[in-house]
Amino acid sequence: MKSKVNEIAISYSGSTKANLLPKVTCSQSAADIAYSQWNKETIELHETFKIMLLNNANKVKGIYEVSNGGITGTLVDVRILFAVLLKSLTTAVILLHNHPSGTLRPSEADKSLTQKIKKAGDLLDIKVLDHLILSPDGDYYSFADNGIL
Fold first, then answer.
1. Which PROSITE patterns does the entry mention (predicted)?
2. 72 alpha-carbon distance from chain centroid
């Protein structure tokens, strides 16, 4: 009996030309881009975790929503996160999530997840440039700016 297996196809489709992509130059520019793309109707209702995919020139290839959670947290499957990064041939990433309460202090779970993703990124030559926590009013906390990345 002949065995059959599924064929796996991987694709990435980007329609915006590289010279038109926004460039991240600092945490403020990353936060501005992230906040402009966030759903303002839900930012103060529940946590969402996203990743900002960057090319080698720190231009934003896109933003991908990894998980959507509850009032005080969301679960992030690191395997799915890296599947997206690898499939899109991303060389650097900025982690993003919101705190509906407006509190910009990272939790121990936030710090632990960031370190886990950073270690995996090091292994795969994908730079984790920052992790931003956004508040509903547009303020943000940068792990890189505060020396905890």
1. MPN, UPF0758
2. 18
